[in-house]
């Protein structure tokens, strides 16, 4: 079985929305507005969840919520159960009545009911232990010996090797510094020393490397850090290699951002005088900062960290290591290496002890990097017989198709739309970014939820997908992404950049001007999602399979977790499959880095994955251009065949609108 | 066969000494006095060879010499063929008449005729090539590849590995820096690169390490340096690994001398604050200086040196590497390690290119170091079936006994007498040191030769051996090393430190006072040579053999080359064996380091030597104390059995003296 297994969640509460008779399960602590959006129930709401617009009034008919009362609600209304949906927090099962402008809303809106993929329970130390695979590459072995005498005055290393052999350990090479420290360690430890051993990756004929010796028994403290080196953020975890416990997790922005938001602009910057060094230092400083925070929060000393596992895309990997990245960008897109040897972490400026070694995830290709390998390994698809599609959604969406027998991968040139790039009011998923959206199909009035429940100031990737899906279903945009200006909706207008939809009026925003979604924005999304979908199709066709053969879809990346799956299918970004076939693994890089720190067997499997994976350059792959063209449509030019459920939904919605119209 | 083979010398000249009718072969360019001393012919000479005392007058009866005339010789005498023996240089066969004080000198002096051991012709690149063993551990392999394309955009390392496989090369690990430099090297070299490969030592399951990549074809330049890291001096050679040619040899004093003359005082200094670092830097600076001189004299760039092989004793090794040396000195004398991994040379401050690796010779024990292993390897005794005694004479004389099947070694606590230590006027073999000596057995008048032919200022090890042997044979000291004061010789007297012999009167010296050899000095030599001889005996007895079983004796070390073998046997320092069984290998460390640079097979054999060699701690070895006590006699308490030839000589000399007396 794979590394990602289904999970039990915190006990959800049931939220029953009337008059639609829609019931949804939601997490306690979420708001009624969030649950409504999840259910596809539209409630007007224009302030992002901050509570000041007062439009999202609902009535709690049964059960209890917390909060939801502000000066916008009169005492009498409050007594009658009226609450602001954006402020009312779920604590138990409730029945919520939504004021509707028309009973016909019901028909159209029901079609938007969102599905929810499983959030995988990630494999951890317990599972690895149960399977006999908890075997960290970094081991501490304590040995004792008789003191030397004139009749046995072998050298200190020979004495250590004998003692290690008695413990069943053999086949060693010594790091010079371990030899250097050994004479005093033996004597200071009164002929007991702790050796720190870095195991070889099993698939190669390597040897155990003694990287450190310490006097006495220090085996109770053996730590590793797992690092996800992302283009935008860096994340790190400290792992106790004795227990497998993750002692803490911290993240921060990758300071390289100030030299460019995406990998291409970083590569361009690296070509400037001193650029590569600046980028290298920026990444290292970001990681060092996260590690320091981790150490402070967990109370451990970074000097006790003997191993750092790291996963990043190919550009991030080469920038971190200071390896010339420019050929990643230039056709024919050649990375420097798949594998890097374990290297002293301090060699690159990581503020870890001298003996700590860096294990970098290998890359498959210039745009299929260690982050993807890490995610694939973490998802376990390389051990699963089911045909699986692995999607890492980001600037360059990476796609892997295969199972335990074979794997094909490709980087889709999706562009930065999913990260808010190329979108007029696009932004990252930070405070004030619209991240969820619904729309009243009759009036065109929206409900928006922002990150941090702040006044809106832009829209992020998941918001973009939700918005386009909702506008599409409401007939406000058509399948080619063009606005329907004829309906005369107040929020749909001709703007300075062409037709646009007003997500929030100036007064409701932080930016003091109308926050809009333009047709050009939609076109960017169309091209991005088309590139992704064409990649799935091309990889599958390359091995004589189709979308319908997929038995499992794994979504990796922080972004993957925040998107509404049903809406992503609706716009044609995700293949239309039963929702239960989808699994989120969250931050695949960090997951993989953590697992590799815990299990040398998994570290070995990483090599198997890289060796097994065939990279396709889509720009020259047969059929890709046709697939791409066919995907320039919501959800697809072959919508009826490839997206039958969505196609049916849209027909249904269109009919309902026509009846009203 | 072994690595040391007999040599042909420069064509010698014949020097016929009358009235003794002794003929000796000597090297052209040497002086008549040196030839006389070699022949055992005594000529009074007290100024060390500078020519100012004028005592060493001889007459050239046939043939021609160069020089030999100063203001001490009248024109008439000069015309008659009179020359000063210390200034007359040999150019052709000559007959030399020595003025004798008594015809009976002849009898006694003849007994002193010195034997000469073979100077081994050292094995070099030609012999290695003929035997198929010229295979340097450092190889440059040039490969070319097709440029990448979209249909073949493997990473740069994968492309290199394919190209290397086509050349029959496989099983690689990459040094990180080689990966780092590869992207630009491939492209700058237009898809031709030169890889520098460090081979694994064959006996272990290692892999080829790619330590450097360069654009284009740089294979015409592949250099190594071989370094002898001695306690007193450092020597280095630059070797062209393509041809095997030694491009140059340079040496200098080890600057560690200012922190102590012997290894013990260095270890003591290392224990002071900052001491180890100071010693490490001193050695490194000395070597860097020698390397710079080498580069200047040979016109090569040190950046092209990819490998440094180094041999030194265990203390020198640990001090150079910065490894705590104190346990070498403390009982039970434990070194840190036998083997050190190949390490980046710049790691220790050697001013070589970043990719250059240091291959350090392994040690067997605290006082049997890499210098001995190197010498043994260079001598080839580990491949020879003959029972061989290997002697490295220095502060701690190291001794190895064995053959291709087994080897036993020990360090004899000989003390510093052979290097002039513990001797009242002892000094190193530098200018003004008495290095050879003969004495008129009747008058007790000496002939002395000094290093550099300068006025004497002290006596070095070889001078000490020659002096004691001559005084012993002349009956001026007895077999216990006591002076015979009863003969009333003017140079034998009671001094402030007890009985002593005046080697040079104050006026004949640089130091302005009588230069003497005291009984305490002789006793120091007696103990030192006894320690050596007892070591030979004890090692042989340990395997049921005796001195008489020895088929070969190899003398290593610069000192070994300058001693007069017959005189070393006479005092019991060397075992009495036919002289043709002795071989000098000169600087065994440098020889071994050079051979290892040229031959990875020999590098592998080094490991075999270390693994094969059994170290004996003499202080606890059975029989050692008895052997030591028996050796406290010139030549030995069992002189008649162990030194029959010497014993007979001495009897003969005693009889001759008695006849005169």
Question: How does this model look, in words?
Answer:
The structure is a homodimer of 661-residue chains. Chain A is α/β, with parallel strands linked by helices and 661 residues long. Among the domains of chain A are: 137-215, Ubiquitin-like (UB roll), CATH 3.10.20; 223-371, Domain of unknown function (DUF4445) (Nucleotidyltransferase, domain 5, 2-Layer Sandwich), CATH 3.30.420; 379-415 and 525-650, Nucleotidyltransferase, domain 5. Chain A is 31% helix and 23% strand. The first copy, chain A, contains 20 helices and 32 strands. In chain A, the strands form 8 sheets. In chain A, strands 9-31-30-21-22-23-32 form a 7-stranded mixed beta sheet, with helices on both faces. In chain A, strands 17-16-15-18-20-19 form a 6-stranded mixed beta sheet, sandwiched between helices. In chain A, α11 packs across α17. Chain A is elongated. The two termini of chain A are 53 Å apart. Mean pLDDT of chain A is 90; it is low at 1-9 and 102-114. At the A-B interface, α5 and α6 of A face α5 and α6 of B.
């Amino acid at each position: 079985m794979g590394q990602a297994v289904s999970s039990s969640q915190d006990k959800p509460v049931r939220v029953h929305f009337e008059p639609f008779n829609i019931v949804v399960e939601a997490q306690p602590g979420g708001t009624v507005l969030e649950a409504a959006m999840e259910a596809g129930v539209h409630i007007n709401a224009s302030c992002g969840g901050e509570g000041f617009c007062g439009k999202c009034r609902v009535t709690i008919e049964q059960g209890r919520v917390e909060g939801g009362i502000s000066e916008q609600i009169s005492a009498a209304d409050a007594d009658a159960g009226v609450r602001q949906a954006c402020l009312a927090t779920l604590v138990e099962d409730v029945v919520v009545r939504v004021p509707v402008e028309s009973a016909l809303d019901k028909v159209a809106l029901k079609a938007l009911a969102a599905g929810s993929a499983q959030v995988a329970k990630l494999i951890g130390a317990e599972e690895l232990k149960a399977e006999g695979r908890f075997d960290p590459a970094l081991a501490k072995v304590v040995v004792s010996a008789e003191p030397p005498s004139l009749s046995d005055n072998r050298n200190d290393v020979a004495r250590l090797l004998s003692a290690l052999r008695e413990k069943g350990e053999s086949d060693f090479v010594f790091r010079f510094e371990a030899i250097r420290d050994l004479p005093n360690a033996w004597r200071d430890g009164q002929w007991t020393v702790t050796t720190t051993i870095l195991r070889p990756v099993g698939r190669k004929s390597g040897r155990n490397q003694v990287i450190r010796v310490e006097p006495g028994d220090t085996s109770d403290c053996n730590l590793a850090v797992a690092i996800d080196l992302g283009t935008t953020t860096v994340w790190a975890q400290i792992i106790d290699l004795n227990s497998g416990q993750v002692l803490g997790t911290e993240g921060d922005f990758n300071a390289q951002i100030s030299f460019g938001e995406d990998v291409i602009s970083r590569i361009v910057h690296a070509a400037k005088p001193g650029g590569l060094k600046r980028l290298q230092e920026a990444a290292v400083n970001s990681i060092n900062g996260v590690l320091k925070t981790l150490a402070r929060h967990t109370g451990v000393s970074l000097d006790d960290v003997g191993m750092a596992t790291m996963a990043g895309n190919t550009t991030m990997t080469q920038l971190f290591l200071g390896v010339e990245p420019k050929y990643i960008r230039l056709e024919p897109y050649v990375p420097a290496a798949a594998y890097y040897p374990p290297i002293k972490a301090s060699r690159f400026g990581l503020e870890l002890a001298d003996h700590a070694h860096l294990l970098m995830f290998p890359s498959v290709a210039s745009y299929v990097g260690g982050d993807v390998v890490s995610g694939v390994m973490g998802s376990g698809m390389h051990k699963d017989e089911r045909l699986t599609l692995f999607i890492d959604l980001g600037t360059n969406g990476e796609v892997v198709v295969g199972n335990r027998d074979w794997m094909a991968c490709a980087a889709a040139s999706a562009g930065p739309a999913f990260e808010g790039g190329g979108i007029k009011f696009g932004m990252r998923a930070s405070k004030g970014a619209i991240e969820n959206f619904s729309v009243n199909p009759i009036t065109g009035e929206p409900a928006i939820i922002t990150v941090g429940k702040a006044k809106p100031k832009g829209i992020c990737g998941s918001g973009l997908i939700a918005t386009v899906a909702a506008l599409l279903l409401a007939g406000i945009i058509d399948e080619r992404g063009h606005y329907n200006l004829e309906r005369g909706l107040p929020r749909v207008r001709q703007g300075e950049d062409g037709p646009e939809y007003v997500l929030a009026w100036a007064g409701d925003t932080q930016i003091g001007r109308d926050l809009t979604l333009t047709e050009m924005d939609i076109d960017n999304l169309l091209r991005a999602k088309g590139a992704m979908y064409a990649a799935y199709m091309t990889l599958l066709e390359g091995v004589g399979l189709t979308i319908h053969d997929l038995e499992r879809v794994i979504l990796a990346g922080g972004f993957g977790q925040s998107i509404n799956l049903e809406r992503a299918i609706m716009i044609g970004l995700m293949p239309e499959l039963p929702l239960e076939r989808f699994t989120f693994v969250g931050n695949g890089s960090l997951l993989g880095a953590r697992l590799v720190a815990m299990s040398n067997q998994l570290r070995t499997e990483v090599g198997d994955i890289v060796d097994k994976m065939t990279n396709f350059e889509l720009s020259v792959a047969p059929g890709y251009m046709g697939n791409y063209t066919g995907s320039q449509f919501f959800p697809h030019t072959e919508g009826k065949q490839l997206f039958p459920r969505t196609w049916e939904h849209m027909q249904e919605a269109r009919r309902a609108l026509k009846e009203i119209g």
